[in-house]
Here is the input.
Amino acid sequence: MTTTQQTDQAAAPPTAEGDQLQYDLVVVGAGFAGMYMLHRARTAGFSVHVYEAGSGVGGTWYWNRYPGARCDVESLEYSYSFSKELRDEWEWPERYSGQPDIERYANHVADRFDLRRDIQFETRVTSAVFDEAQHVWAIATSAGDRVRARYLIMATGCLSAVNLPNIPGRDSFVRESYHTGQWPKEPVSFAGKRVAVIGTGSSGVQSVPVIASQAASLTVFQRTPSYSLPSANGPIPVDEVQQFRANFEAIHAANLKMPGGTGSRFTAAVQGSVLQVPIERRSDVFGKAWTAGGFSFMRSFSDIATSHEANGVAAGFVKEKIRELVRDQETAELLCPEIPIGCKRMIIDSGYYETFNMSHVTLCDARIEPIEAITATGVRTVKGDYEFDMIVFATGFDAMVGSLTRIDIQGRAGLQLRDAWEAGPRTYLGLAVTDFPNLFTITGPGSPSVLTNMMVSIEQHVDWITNCLEYVRERGASTIEPTLAAQEAWVDHVNDVATRDIMHTAPSCDSWYLGSNIPGKPRVFMPLPGLPAYIERCNQVAAAGYEGFVLA
Ligand code: NAP
Here is the structure.
């Protein structure tokens, strides 16, 4: 592999003796969560040090620099809201931003708020041990640092621990190979090369058209077909930007009332069931939403996510589109998904299906031709050997928990976080974990996180954590930790809400939301659907003196 897999680097834990408390907060990760945490905590008078494994800021948008990487939330909303000056000075060139523009934005924010002086780059936190006598976290890094901090804030991202597939011979390929989530900073050339892409989630679907436009040949290895919607990307009209800025406060407030924290400007085209309108009207509404691009399609009617039958009608429209877009009908059928639409994270693409009309692009479907092994020179399927110059693994992530459990985190009495979460993640509010005092997770499992516009959830969590730390400081306490009862009740609540979410938890759907993309990972729905009720609960907990937490 030319990429470096993120591994458990079990460095020796820091010793308790002799080390001074260096920081109020150590933050792990300098993506959008870590950067805002640094800014807010610093402004509140805490000393903060951030460790970042990459050589620059941006997190997800630093690592996922694969060709075609693009955000599926509209640029105007996929931005920090906390600073009016920042909002007004930054110009997004496109409705859906590409990775280079988002990384540029992250760098702009880092410079504008003078964040870099407290970020240590190219340093991975390898272990964090809670010192029960001193009430501090003792932290060790890949660079040999041994530091002690009162609080440990995990801003490690939900989709950052890469998943390399357990295909026999995976590491035996001797030519170029990359994982989309650890794409190198140096340019990668596809020109004249025979390229394989394994995986057809968002990363695969986004990279396929770009790779196809340059490679000599491209073979796409599909295990499960995904639904993808066209982005209809382009510049944002000037008057739309002006309107957005002028009405920002109202739009933002309305977004906080949306289940995903975004999209209040675009309500359902039809406030009602797809089943209650005549067939011609359905096609008309779906067609307009398809052309409008992005998530508009999922908002065409209000019951696509709540009724199996309505969901099936919407899915049927997309399959018809695939059959229209892809000329070879055998390939088109293979690209048609069988799962409910939206049960896996929806994909927004730029010309994915059309790419299969190019004569040098081939679809290799695992239902007909499963991969048997990776060889030194290519991929072996049940039908024979394919030779490649490059393999691109677009095989996703150990989502939501991997970036936490791959670090050696020890709470009370040496309890390892990965052991505490063996049967699935257990948190209070997706923010804190019993037996791990003074540890906070930004957009952790058990919070809406990946079901929302991450920028909104990140800001809500960072604001809540900062207020909480100020509260603890005012009371002169040195630890805060959720009670077991509060955590158990929260886990029950998350499970209960998830069970009622028929779309995301459909038994036929193996998604990373459920952990079922990782062999052996417990099948547990990890995020909590419904941002508005969640925000209300977080606010209630704070207003009631951090109900469910113990301060000591
Ligand atoms: P993903 O959605 O988990 O897709 C991984 C793909 O790899 C799937 O097609 C999966 O097949 C396949 N795969 C995994 N293991 C395999 C194996 N052993 N053999 C063959 N195929 C295998 O990962 P992703 O595409 O990186 O996307 C993850 C998430 O990141 C997205 O859902 C999205 O939330 C986020 N993301 C967002 C954007 C954006 O904003 N536009 C872009 C990229 C990513 P199965 O389906 O059969 O498991």
